[in-house]
Amino acid sequence: MARRRTGVSRQRSASDSESEKSSLDNEHGIFEWDAAADRRWTSLREAELRRGFSLDTAHKNKASVFVTLHSRSMVVVGVFFALTTIAGTVASCLYFESDLQGLVYPFISETARDMPQTGAFAFGLTITSMFMIICAVLQYGKVKRDLRESDVGAKRNLTALIVGIVAPPFLGLLACYDTKRALNTHRACVVVFFSLTMVYMLTILSIYHHLSGRSTLREVMEAYKKDDDGRRDKRRRSSCTASPKEIKNVKFSVKVKTIIALIFLGLTLFYLPIGMCMVSDIHSTTYSKDDVYVHAARAVCQHLAVVCIILFYGTFYYDFGELKFYLVHR
Which residue of 19, 166, 182, 242 pairs with 177 in a disulfide if CB–CB is 3.0 to 4.6 A? Predict the structure, then answer.
């Protein structure tokens, strides 16, 4: 009995040491394990869905799609709410002859100081911010699909997702905190929103530069050029992640995004840091008559910067293409 107990105790101590070792290994290699597990889970999920949609699958195991949404429709709805809200607010301000604080050319937020513009402005931009978040999530999924097994660009894609989710709520907040009742809070939200949006644009632009310059994309183009009859080499195609049409789409998207991001960067720099240093009433709740033309120039930059934001998110309509969002019932 004593020997048996000793053997048991030895086995337990050995297993304990192995578990401690494995826990230490997991502690140092947790990110590698999580990445591998995520890839396995994704492949198993895709295989399960393919089986569910197969014609040979039994009726009880078949999957059915009960909601189908075009990803580009999210872009259309978001742009529609943004344009309608801004245009409606300006039109309402002119119709009711609201006070523009003596500005020659007002900021967008100054047209929403009074009712009913204040309520409509807050509602419309809050809805717009929600669709901006949806577009950021869809863009993350689309880029993740394009990257496939490549680890390069994955961290930037995750960073873009986080910034794309954090930035839009400040658009809703700056609309809710109007300049008449909460000027300082409004200005703080403006600075945060434009700064994070700038980071988001540059991060997305960096990812698309990576996608357009990958060696796998060049391999696809070479493979297609070698086939005079247009047929694809299956071995080459299986190792690549894009077709020639997708390559052209990415390269065109990079050019457009680069132009928009650079223009937005210049406009935002003059609108916020440079323009704010040029006026003397930045800490005041009223605008100085001596700075009205500087504020007019800042307002023009603000309006054009907002247009750049709308256009940048509008490029997602081109990026998403025929990408659809399915809700599947099993």
Answer: 182
Which of 256, 254, 251 lies closest to 220 in space, CA to CA?
Answer: 251
pLDDT in tens, 278-303: 988 787 878 888 888 999 999 999 99
Is pTM, for the whole model, over 0.90? Answer: no
Is the four-CA dihedral 112, 114, 120, 122 of positive or negative sign? positive
Reported as a single tens digit per residue, the pLDDT across 92-124 is 998 988 888 888 899 999 999 888 999 999 999
Distance (Å, rounded) from C-alpha 303 to C-alpha 152? 36
What is the per-residue pLDDT across 181-228, written as a single tens digit (0 to 9) for each? 888 999 999 999 999 999 999 999 999 888 877 654 555 455 545 544
SS (H, E, C) 131-193: HHHHHHHHHHHHHHHHHCCCCCCHHHHHHHHHHHHHCHHHHHHHHHCCCCCCHHHHHHHHHHH
Which of the 8 DSSP states describes residue 241? -
Q: Is residue 165 pLDDT above 90, yes or no?
A: yes
The rounded distance, in Å, linking the Cα atoms of 77 and 59 is 37
Q: How far apart are CA 191 and CA 22, in angstroms?
A: 48
What pLDDT score was predicted for residue 53?
Answer: 62
Nearest to 152 by CA among 202, 206, 197, 199: 206
d(CA 10, CA 29): 28
| 260 three-state secondary structure | helix
DSSP string, 9-23: HHHHHHHHHHHHHHH
Cis peptide before 116 (omega within 30 of 0): yes
pLDDT of residue 62: 65
Residue type, 151: D
| DSSP element (H, E) containing 89 | helix 71-95
The residues with which 326 forms a beta bridge, in sequence order, are 68
